[in-house]
Amino acid sequence: MTSENMGKKAAVCLPWRGSGTVKILLCEPTRSTTMRLLNFNELQTVLGGRGRTTIYRDVAAGRIPAPIKIGGRLYWREDEVETFVEEMASAQG
To answer: Which distant-in-sequence residues (6+ apart) come within 8 Å of 32 by Cβ?
Structure first.
């Protein structure tokens, strides 16, 4: 696929055993497939050095998005944290 066709949908025909072909439709993804996760230290930095106890109190009170637990560690979705920070900034605004 050439660079000029990258944003367009394209059909590709592949040979198939027997008397036909298989048509595959390639489409643009509707959203990003990557999700960045922040560990606790990165979260603290984004929140301006807020303390550990304060962060966990805010999570329990629902003021900060809840973390995702992977193994024994907690991670926060960067997009949710950014939305939270933007909402807090506009509320003080």
So the answer is: none
Q: Which residues share a beta bridge with 21? A: 15
Which residue, 91, 2, 79, is CA-closest to 38?
A: 79
For the stretch 17-68, pLDDT in tens is 555 555 555 555 555 567 899 999 999 999 999 999 999 999 999 999 999 9
**DSSP H helical ranges for the chain:** 40-46, 52-60, 78-92
Identify the DSSP state of 11: E
Alpha-carbon torsion, ordered 14, 6, 28, 86, to 10 deg: 160
Task: State which H helix or E strand residue 69 sits in.
Answer: strand 68-70
Rounded distance between C-alpha atoms, residue 66 and residue 82, angstroms: 13
What distance in Å separates the CA atoms of residue 93 and residue 86, rounded to the nearest whole number? 10
* Both structure tokens of 48: 């301006």
